[in-house]
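> tool_call: predict_assembly(chains=three)
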Amino acid sequence: AQAQSSVTIYGIADMAVQAGNRGAGSGTKYALDSGEQGGSRLGFKGTEDLGSGLKAIFALEAGIYMDSGASQGGLTFGRQSWVGLQGDFGTVKMGRQYTPQFYFFDAVDPFDLGFTSGVAGGSTSTGGVFGFLSASSWRVNNSVSYQSNDMSGFSTMALYGFGEVAGNTSANRSVGINGQYAAGPLYVGAVYYKQNDAASNGLKSVLLGATYDFGVAKGAFGYSKDTTDNNTLDQKGYMLGVTVPVTAADNILATAARLQNNLASGANNSTQLAVGFTHSLSKRTNLYGSYSRVRNDANINGGGLAVANGATASLANVGIHHAF
Amino acid sequence: AQAQSSVTIYGIADMAVQAGNRGAGSGTKYALDSGEQGGSRLGFKGTEDLGSGLKAIFALEAGIYMDSGASQGGLTFGRQSWVGLQGDFGTVKMGRQYTPQFYFFDAVDPFDLGFTSGVAGGSTSTGGVFGFLSASSWRVNNSVSYQSNDMSGFSTMALYGFGEVAGNTSANRSVGINGQYAAGPLYVGAVYYKQNDAASNGLKSVLLGATYDFGVAKGAFGYSKDTTDNNTLDQKGYMLGVTVPVTAADNILATAARLQNNLASGANNSTQLAVGFTHSLSKRTNLYGSYSRVRNDANINGGGLAVANGATASLANVGIHHAF
Amino acid sequence: AQAQSSVTIYGIADMAVQAGNRGAGSGTKYALDSGEQGGSRLGFKGTEDLGSGLKAIFALEAGIYMDSGASQGGLTFGRQSWVGLQGDFGTVKMGRQYTPQFYFFDAVDPFDLGFTSGVAGGSTSTGGVFGFLSASSWRVNNSVSYQSNDMSGFSTMALYGFGEVAGNTSANRSVGINGQYAAGPLYVGAVYYKQNDAASNGLKSVLLGATYDFGVAKGAFGYSKDTTDNNTLDQKGYMLGVTVPVTAADNILATAARLQNNLASGANNSTQLAVGFTHSLSKRTNLYGSYSRVRNDANINGGGLAVANGATASLANVGIHHAF
């Protein structure tokens, strides 16, 4: 009797057994963790047709550390919470939402923002290869975004995040834009993002990347550069990756990435190697495994995964990913 | 296969761009905020027919600051969480629920408890005209309420909120009652509410109001008086308001309200003026705008909206309200 | 249009008016509390058929203190959050989940883990007779469990909870196993559980119990023993209980339980007596009442329900329990 047609419930339940070692004698931690392939979540979304091609849309998405039942980041709907309008002009959204770089990461990273770069027992804090390479944020509060519709393969997204400081429109402000071109086997993308702190010092991120699907394998390349206005951070990184569909149900994933700390004059590289596989049990459910290793030079701690500069960290996962 | 008929999912996604100034040189804050027209929320409710006209009813309603994904007031289901029975005798509810004055505010305030009296970037803390005029609470924990059915236009609600202090039934206790008469274009309502603090000092609130729908416009009048047993607060206020249906899809709203601090002997008035509009895109979705201004005399800070006594505050909103 | 067949929403809304006294002149506390018969909750669960008898299953269950709208234990999905696989081999689950002893408590306790042993106004912290008798946990984070299918009436569950301490697999670790046999009117169960603290000192719990349904009444017997490796706790307890189906809609429940603190040489017993009734309004909704009393000797505070050793505590509830 009750009509529920305006709300769709969806989500992901993802758990893995882990063995992680952050190096420098820290010892191996065995753990059960949530969200290694993709963050565990429960979402509510809807679309209302307003006529003339116009639609009202919303999403409320709870991130869940399923190993403890806690909310991701302490926020009940911390993954996404926005409302917007969609039409011939594109999509406008307001709220807490993904940044332009998230969509880029999602498209270029063979590990799809998961698997490789977390700390054992650290819940959904994995971040794929770009969690290692990039200091920029995936989500931003108090923001308005515009996403274009597809224009012959090209699309773009621009975002403005209010700093919400009285008498100051610069402090805590975020601005960003991406552009991507997708046609057949090819994807090329680029991002610029600047995120100010309370003193209006900006963290500027530039990202470039491409993927090409050769059929027997899909190759990926990514470049990341982060600098701050007050020179507290200056790093750049590269990633090469491949996705190999071994069978209709099995994929092998691999990446090699290097991050360089330009504030140090030498011994300033961190290297991440990662391999993984997924085995589908259905369209919605798969098993997975992954192994990643980060080796820091003396003057860098790539992604903060090792306990300190100069240390070597590793992480192995075996888990299940179930979408609903 | 799975029957979900016993639960209805509903909610509101409401976001606005704001410019707010709390006066006295505090500077303008530009912000994106949640719940300006009506608090953003996700609710679950249900009704079970028990036979003989008796029904079991419940509601679990999460308030969401959609600008950040946080929960309203830090409570996962902080808007409403109650269970009850409904029948020929009326409705009894137990849990966290709306106070008798909430229903009065909702009926009398042209802004319907939204739009006008928040602080920019302050999330769902707007409170319409009565958020400015009244110090009494909208919701109360640990409470039992009784709501009568309609009796030839008259209805009433009584509420008792347990203080839950061992050996003391007075501390932290809340008691309240409302009465209203609605017939055709006329609504008249009154409320008495007393909310004790931990030392059993009561905040007593008296509210009176009426609305009359003339067709071309609906007029509203409200009166509010708050006093505490220990004389820490003594204020009264008046509100005049109007709702004008300009077209089938457009409404203009306006109110003028004055609050007086009786603990000061002069320069003790705060005046709020507010105008707003709503433009419906559908039955469930509308755009809105509003502007409100509070001018404090030297010995009052009406609703705490300005930074201090004697300052002048303003708030402008442009937003979207989507019910699902 | 939107398919929601993969998610089932379910829950319980349970509220009661209470009068509780923790003894020793603490005074009676009158309260409205949540979850006296069964913890108030909102859950989302699903099953996906993967073929060949294999299924993917998950549950996300929010515990709600409906008297305030807060989350149980401060965790959004703090009751259950797990994903697993189910098949001919049994069921494997990973996440935050019930311990082996929970299923034992649930089967043996006439009060079904509710009604009797909470503190007034303390929300869903009631725990039935075993909340009084046993110090072991109902739920555990970071855990993998295996539950067998039924084998001619016999079934078993084993659980391993990761301690997640680097270089140390013993600290904070939990391990447990249960076994039960159910045939016609008979149930017999046993549990062993060991839960280590950060210093690897284990709390060991042994539980034994049985129920037999004589038709006119169902009798229950339970035994509990808790000891710690470092001798900070050494207690054992017994429970006798009965459930009497007075009419098709009415049950009377009663238990007598005694807990003994073996670390004290005398005056070391705590006795709990509890009676209750349930009256069904439908299959999903019932009214209930209960009264329980705990009398401590001078050297024990059973279940921590009284204010101190030697005091006598009581709790009375009248409430409604609605499942959806």
